[in-house]
Protein 1
Amino acid sequence: MPKITLLIHCPDTSGIIANVTSFFYKRHGNINYIDQYVDLENTVFFMRLECEFTAQTSISNTKEEFKETVAEKYNMSWEMYSADAKPRMAVFVSKYDHCLYDILGRYKSGELKVSIPLIISNHKDLEQVAQNFGIPFYHIPVTANTKEEAAEKQLELLQKEKVDFIVLARYMQIIPKSLIAAFPNRIINIHHSFLPAFAGAKPYHLAYKRGVKIIGATSHYVTEELDAGPIIEQDITRISHSHSIKDLILKGRDLEKIVLANGIKYHIERKTLVFNNKTIVFT
Amino acid sequence: MPKITLLIHCPDTSGIIANVTSFFYKRHGNINYIDQYVDLENTVFFMRLECEFTAQTSISNTKEEFKETVAEKYNMSWEMYSADAKPRMAVFVSKYDHCLYDILGRYKSGELKVSIPLIISNHKDLEQVAQNFGIPFYHIPVTANTKEEAAEKQLELLQKEKVDFIVLARYMQIIPKSLIAAFPNRIINIHHSFLPAFAGAKPYHLAYKRGVKIIGATSHYVTEELDAGPIIEQDITRISHSHSIKDLILKGRDLEKIVLANGIKYHIERKTLVFNNKTIVFT
Amino acid sequence: MPKITLLIHCPDTSGIIANVTSFFYKRHGNINYIDQYVDLENTVFFMRLECEFTAQTSISNTKEEFKETVAEKYNMSWEMYSADAKPRMAVFVSKYDHCLYDILGRYKSGELKVSIPLIISNHKDLEQVAQNFGIPFYHIPVTANTKEEAAEKQLELLQKEKVDFIVLARYMQIIPKSLIAAFPNRIINIHHSFLPAFAGAKPYHLAYKRGVKIIGATSHYVTEELDAGPIIEQDITRISHSHSIKDLILKGRDLEKIVLANGIKYHIERKTLVFNNKTIVFT
Amino acid sequence: MPKITLLIHCPDTSGIIANVTSFFYKRHGNINYIDQYVDLENTVFFMRLECEFTAQTSISNTKEEFKETVAEKYNMSWEMYSADAKPRMAVFVSKYDHCLYDILGRYKSGELKVSIPLIISNHKDLEQVAQNFGIPFYHIPVTANTKEEAAEKQLELLQKEKVDFIVLARYMQIIPKSLIAAFPNRIINIHHSFLPAFAGAKPYHLAYKRGVKIIGATSHYVTEELDAGPIIEQDITRISHSHSIKDLILKGRDLEKIVLANGIKYHIERKTLVFNNKTIVFT
């Protein structure tokens, strides 16, 4: 039987939940999950709902009806996904392999419900890893003079492969505006600090210098401002004076892997909404 | 304007959310918060809802109507609380003072929205602490021969003071069955281990002996079986070989304080439901 | 039998450990604890050692001999404390009471091995709390025009009471340079963020605005640059989109209490050394 | 220049540290790291030391001298390792691949400083993974009737490949006594609970049934009693009522990977000592 996930945000007013849930009830939909949140400051209502229909139902018809009878009435921004649809994910890498190994291990074992049609890298180092896991690898070098050209090639490949979202698995290049514009809130980066501390380059070096007692990692959607996009997930680990920069880099790897993997999962499972440069994550 | 919290559990079927939310919508109720959970194994539906009415509303009438038009239809177990109602909490202590200081500090600073009409203890040691915070203190000794008598005195005091629930802040006596029966799922205990590990006496000694690398604390509702009631909250802290039993006891104190305080808060805020000796905690 | 704690730092070279430990061995000292750390970047050696003598020993003689036979040879900065000596701690507060309640509760239960000769505040609000715990309270208002005068009064009181170090338990005033100079690396502040993120005023508001998924607290020694002194301890807690600023403030209180208490304990137990605006904490 | 790691335990008495450190000082050894611990209950002294020699030094001579001049005097159990020696690690698996992917990813990226001469499995499922990473894979089926025969084959392979220690990466068979005896405190298992809670089979199912709010994982040395060997490392993650058994299994995978990897690292880096069925881990 068909199953959908619905994401909504709209101006807050009374009756939204009653109207939305009644809509599905009348169409033989069994609501398995509902979560909502009201941003009181901006009076915006957010909602995530999973519904399983007890009879054959056309999802495109349901969408049409939802739009006409509910969504327009409340001026909603909304998306309805079929639970069957498997998102198509591109992975960008440079030379570090730990996040790539982690993602591909999770993918192979069925933990990440995505397709991975391609891996793109500005270096050739990880080509062999891609091959071991049977995933097409494209080497697109990026130099000061070839940035635009590279962006065009990347975009072309992504469109050809019908990619839904991009994961930057320690990709060490600034993402060009054109790519960000083509994938708004659909490029996930892992930054190796607990943002907003230590944004920019070499966060472990800065953490060492400042003498912090915890280090962190942050997965976030990429926006034009560097390391300032909506945060999806963060985690930390304790360190002490006895850890060298090399130790921080090593300890940080596990953080990066898990924080990135969780960010990807929330995105795949349609658990994230973005508003005002912040995420609502319905876990 | 009146504000209520509704807690429900009932056999799972479709339409419950739509019916409940429509009920409040029709009565000018604005739902600020809704959370639900379906226990698929037992097909039981659980829900917590906060509703603020935009017009003067009689809560007792609302209860009556809810019962007739919704609750009976779905065979619900349910409770509707006015947000104004401040629960009355009794605290039981013995000789350890850290949890008591913690609770009373939070109470004085307004963090715990309760009344504390009395503190009961089987020892006199903490009478002065109670006096410093201006709370009546009752010394009810418990010996092998006076258990029943003590239980009767406790119950009498609790009923006289219209106590809603009891907190055992490191109270070192087994709670008699009569008291448990009078306060079902309304006695909160703090146990100084991550249950089910190290149930019973001297958990820190057992943890030391086993050589664990983490210790924990657990707040739970008291049932007849010792340390086996529904778990409300748990937390842990890391230890190493270098920590003595005394160190574990000291490190555990902060865990006990926080895990108990969180358990109390969830209870006060009507965030807990109990089913099958487990809690649903809508945080 | 006498017991000492020794803290050392000096240029790194070989033989230091052998020489120091032999020094105590020859004087019937049993080393219970030794920890060391080498800052390879700056080639500085740090060490903490606890030694219990098996015969009556004059600590002042031991100090004199240590200076002559070991310390001068290796050009050491060092301090030797008798384990009996109880440090004298002043507490500065403003209006928030949670850290004060926490510190005084730990003090009363014997967890903090200090004397607290006085509490100083720029407001009268917490006078009653001080009285309940039987600690002298001094109200020294601080206004734009009376800063210097207030600093003089504070310093006079602190010197009269032979205070060893100061704890700022959410004291909401900038500490004047004269006070910092009089207590170098002996003023402990609690800042309600994971520094260096959200230094300065209103960190919870900034954390909310940025949409972080974790909040933190930091205890550090006070230096002239605001919130930039050597970090002693940090901890964090998870939050989500659903937490308001008020929730963050409330959740942060437990962090502040524990992180400050741990910072105080490390200081009291002579576990901290400061070098290059960073701490070495021998836990 | 040669570099060694020394691990010691012996009856506690005064002068051990002075004698050991002087031993190296006199032989042009620069002590980079020293950590010690005294088990006061059993009056046993434990120590770990790293020493770098500033002149060419024969490690076998040093061992001989250490034995004669220090070790025998204090009745020490001790081991001295050359920092160059790379331990040889066998991996046992069954059908779960997440720990294997994790270990091999860390191995390939140079994080684990070991050789992996072979992978042994009672199933053929993961043969392809082993091949992708270029590691010999041996399929040794284990049935009720072939246990002894299988153990012999395993032992033969392990000895032929000069294996130093074994990692059970979710290997779903009881290890025979003969193998445990051949590798005392040198077989590392990952158990998917915070031991001693939920020892034995199906810990996630038991955790779900008990309604715990945290789940854990434990890496430990294998002894004859199931899941009761010395604990090396533990970690936990929070869960809620909303997590199904399947969710626990999924969330637990990350725990298992990290807790096993840390256990392996501590072992490889000679940071663990075992005494009285507990570990001393000098991190």
Protein 2
Amino acid sequence: MTSAFRPTPASIPPPNAGLALRQPKGLPPNFQPLNPLQFILRAADIYPNKVALVHSDVKYPVSYTFAVWCQRIQNLAYALIQAGIKPGDRVAIIAPNSYSCKVSDAHHGVLAAKAVPCPINTRLKPAEVAYILEHSRSSIILVDHEFVHLLPQNLKVPVIVSNDTGRPGDPYENFLSSGRAFSQERGWAGLEYDADENSAATLCYTSGTTGRPKGVVTTLRGSYLAAIANAYESRIHLESTYLWILPMFHAAGWTFPWANVFGFATQICLRTVDNSLIWKHFLQSGVTHYCGAPTVQIGIVNHPSAKKLPRPISAIIAGAAPTASLIASLEQLGITPIHVYGLTLYGPFTRNFPQAAWANLSLQERSKIMARQGHPFATAQDARVVYPPKDGTDTLVDVPRDGKTVGEIVTRGNIVMKEYFRDPEATAKAFRGGSFNSGDLAVMHPDGAVAIVDRSKDIIISGGENASSLAIEQELASHPCVLEVAVVARNSFKWGERPHAFVTLRPTSIAKWKGRHGDFEKELKAHAKERLPGFACPEWVSIVSELPKTSTGKILKFDLRKIVAKL
Amino acid sequence: MTSAFRPTPASIPPPNAGLALRQPKGLPPNFQPLNPLQFILRAADIYPNKVALVHSDVKYPVSYTFAVWCQRIQNLAYALIQAGIKPGDRVAIIAPNSYSCKVSDAHHGVLAAKAVPCPINTRLKPAEVAYILEHSRSSIILVDHEFVHLLPQNLKVPVIVSNDTGRPGDPYENFLSSGRAFSQERGWAGLEYDADENSAATLCYTSGTTGRPKGVVTTLRGSYLAAIANAYESRIHLESTYLWILPMFHAAGWTFPWANVFGFATQICLRTVDNSLIWKHFLQSGVTHYCGAPTVQIGIVNHPSAKKLPRPISAIIAGAAPTASLIASLEQLGITPIHVYGLTLYGPFTRNFPQAAWANLSLQERSKIMARQGHPFATAQDARVVYPPKDGTDTLVDVPRDGKTVGEIVTRGNIVMKEYFRDPEATAKAFRGGSFNSGDLAVMHPDGAVAIVDRSKDIIISGGENASSLAIEQELASHPCVLEVAVVARNSFKWGERPHAFVTLRPTSIAKWKGRHGDFEKELKAHAKERLPGFACPEWVSIVSELPKTSTGKILKFDLRKIVAKL
């Protein structure tokens, strides 16, 4: 499909191109600062002619080998330096979810200029984009033509537009070409390797439901270690093909932009989460891996094109726990779920590690265990569940390993964020007690597995009992007609709070319940009563056509709470 | 087989044992010093009941789960501390090749006491062992009962003997029990995590053919990164079973003692390289991985028990390049060779990365390419081939990528040794020019792959031409009757030097050439003439029953040179 495409002359590396940056002075022979930029240089050295990046479902399809892509990355670094970008400067990127090749380029090319990529969520409103551009003090903006309207007027920094063509004449391509010209063929040796592995790697803003978004800064060291862990845990290798469904602006694509390169995998880019295209690639392009939140996965498994895969695909799931029904659907299609848990940091921090004994469990039992967030990831360190610190102290005390006592997840180690950008107060608060305070409420099971019960605001205090909206959702989702479900607290004169469930029906079940929503409500309540204590059974059930979601696909319970507050 | 065995009471961890060491004061929440000790704690946390270590082919077979093994490691750390071991002290280990569980314990338990394991080659002579014990200033010696005779008289440091029983009453088990008692159940929290990732991890002595052995010091950071790279490149995972054929005293087992634990693999120990036992485990124990030098691999593939394997096994090969004949034999049996190259440092530093295009090559052509040492390993950094530095300068200049120009391999990065112990002069010499000077002569191919031609002393200057003894050996090994071959320079009045080949015959070919060695010599010379330039053809061929080898299985060309010097 992309055979007619020829990379621009500026993308072709010279023969015998050196693939090492200039070493900073004074490094001992046995110490190299960790830096995920190293991966693309190594891939271009070992597998120069392997297809690295494919962007086929667009008007101007392109595909790049590692050698060509690596040259483009080098060009981008020089172009940024020519544009005045200094080490540590932020480079904003506003590009499709998911992906113009430009975002992929940036994860490597901006680092090669020793600058910091700041990928911005394309689903934000112009005012939010303006806030992030201002707060990050980005010195230059790389923007996809589709999202130019998100930019504020009167910008004082350069804007480079990509028309996503990969052809000469495209402003982004011209930018790369100018970088190549500016390099005067000094090659990689004309760029300097960052001497400090604790330098900032990326700046990603949270989609914070309350207050202003916060800028999460990661380090080169953390990104290197997290990317290798992702490649290892997901088993990404030379023969792997990764499909970009997860937005790369979400926690820098959970470090998969680097993990895939570390593993020499081929990456396929998609501009939008289009389930028809996703199934086309699943069935025709040899896809082996993808990442996505459960809500995205639900869309995939329920698409009309869904069918049993000829080869298994690994789905890395985070953002929320997969329900039993989702796990069953994935497995029936030949998709192996890998359930991980992270934050807007480096992506996965814990993983649900499968145990041999689970094979003997029923799907319901197994999926309950698989919904746990599990144990620390390969290069993560501690994930603890602790009591709220007592006033006046910072000492963190672990809750017992009883699977019942609720505490907060705190993490520490090399893949914990460096800081909130320009916000020492929020940083200090997040690191209170010497660990990162996640804000996620969880229990610790006897086997050391962490299981989220809810974020603190998601607990429903019903008749004096703490009901976990997550646990209720898990049970309601096991009803065969339920597609997605969200449960929030609704005020009750008698009980204080009581659960209110919002439900979408499976496409195949909509007709069945048409005009009989009351009957469905009764049936779902009976379903709940068999599985949940009385205080946790939903008092109200609303069937809706869709659930409100954040730009990263998380269900906006905040909006649902506003609805029930008016009832 | 081991079901009747019960671990000693001191090996049983208490319920809900904490699996984290005391953190050193002042560490930020987002920084954890890299340390391979972390792996066993994580394995015991996530897979406590999985079999970690099996030692079955002995009078007292044992097997330990990760939880039990982890407790033994903790006990060892406390026992060492009770014995007066301080951070940084060396702990000598003299144990079978390959393995009492004691050596496996030491790679983790000595680190847990913040001390440095110093595994000593069991094939050395008492005087050499005495030298290493003295030079390393080891503060305590863990020794297997079979090797007590290697110890000098009048030792001033404590010696703990293991009878390799795993049963109460064994002095080593008593030592562990005393550690448990000394711990007063403080558990892992009573031990401190090393604050400095650049602390020494291991001290391994070279088997130096000339001069005194040198003590190679590795770091915790390097060991962590090298172990993860080995797990990743070899694809060691939960379902893997690793068979210990490689001596663990050889470059600390190429970091596989940690790599296997990182991957949650089961490790099977063998006290000796017994090909019958090896094949028993290959066929009956679900072995998936092992490491070994070509000379060991030759023994394996030529053993009478050798047969096509039901499941593929990955063989990590280093120490010398595998010959075409070895590659063919391995592949026919279902063994996938992974050719890596390293030094007495952390094991693998480069790897021969397979290319899709090789599938179209003949076995002869493919194995020639597979014999190259290849490109830098996953977490390695630079492997260059450089000219000898000009006198008075330290600048390293790369040879052209022409596959012809011979230079020296130099390496740098995180998995390069820290230093030669107590030898600043040798360290400075090794690091001359800001890289580690390997002493291995090589060419750089156009694709960036390094290929060793020889160590400098192995070049034969024949008629003014440089003949690589390695290249000659590769060609002679392709003769169907040749088992192993070593080529050295022999003085020639006419040519200066000329190659002399020492050959062992395959067991199946011995009868064929009995009493006709002269005929075989003619045939082998003709075989060489078809494949090599005249100056590289052996002038003399000697059939021998076995080749002299170092304790680590390398052919002792030094001894062969002594033989030809007398001819």
